[in-house]
């Protein structure tokens, strides 16, 4: 295999074929090296291989990481393509999705996320990446220290209108929701006849389990109402009111995060953003703790499959 880079950018590293080996054989022969490349750079892209559709993606996940994980505590609408492979999101194509680390609001998260391009968009539609080590360097130390001291909290509201708790937790049984949330450090508040509000306080910075470096890994920015596309912000506030928003974030003590702090954090993510145009059969593996991802708006029939692997609470393999 040949390891290169995209012109002018360090993320993702690019792995290309230099003989007729299949992608699976390349992974089998170079597994440790590829894994260490991902942990070092944050993301690696296989380009120029025949992956073989969704089944091929399954095989790649298994060869590199083991069995793909299920998608629990879903935040954005997705459809299942096959087993634990999903479309990346069914969110409206006209809108940007802000940079985030998958499931960084949960008590556990996937260490690897796989993105596989079945069909590129006609225009835009990139999956932009940002090295959160770089994001962290762009954050004013006083802002970061305040989050480390106070932590951050997310609040979610489930309702008929914004998505029911029954769908989200895949049960009609309130006591089951309470048990699950209890085990995940999530506070539960039943609201009205059939509403649910959950709150969880999380750490903003976590040590990377392989490298030990402290990483800025949280959903405080992504979940905040001000990170939504402008056209949605007013609509959402009008429709729900602040305390009933489907998702929002606060400091860990429940206090509002000031607008200028949110703008500063959004700017820090954008300052680290890199993007490239997808080609059919591109397959990118990210270290989810090192690399945030987002989505550009797009036109055309873009199809990106996603799979997640390596639960953060499982034994660490370098
Ligand atoms: Fe995502």
Fold and architecture overview:
There is one protein chain. By secondary structure, this protein is of the alpha+beta class. It has two domains: 2-89 and 111-122 and 276-311, Clavaminate synthase-like (Double-stranded beta-helix, 4-Layer Sandwich), CATH 3.60.130.10; 133-269, Double-stranded beta-helix (4-Layer Sandwich). Helices cover 27% and strands 29% of the residues. It is built from eight helices and 20 strands. Helix 1 crosses helix 2 and helix 3 (132-138) packs across helix 8. It binds fe (ii) ion. Residues 100, 102, 293 line the site of fe (ii) ion (FE2).
Short structural summary:
By secondary structure, the chain is of the alpha+beta class. The chain is 27% helix and 29% strand.
Tags for this entry?
alpha+beta, four-stranded antiparallel β-sheet, 2 domains, 318 residues, binds fe (ii) ion, Double-stranded beta-helix
Structural class of the secondary structure composition? alpha+beta
Write down the oligomeric state: single chain
What ligand molecules are bound, each kind once?
A: fe (ii) ion
How many structural domains does the protein architecture include?
2
Number of helices: 8
The Rg value, from CA coordinates, equals 19 Å
Please tell me the CATH architecture of the largest domain by its name: 4-Layer Sandwich
| Strand arrangement in the largest pleated sheet | 1-2-3-17-7-20-5-4
| CATH classification, class level of the largest domain | Alpha Beta
Number of strands: 20
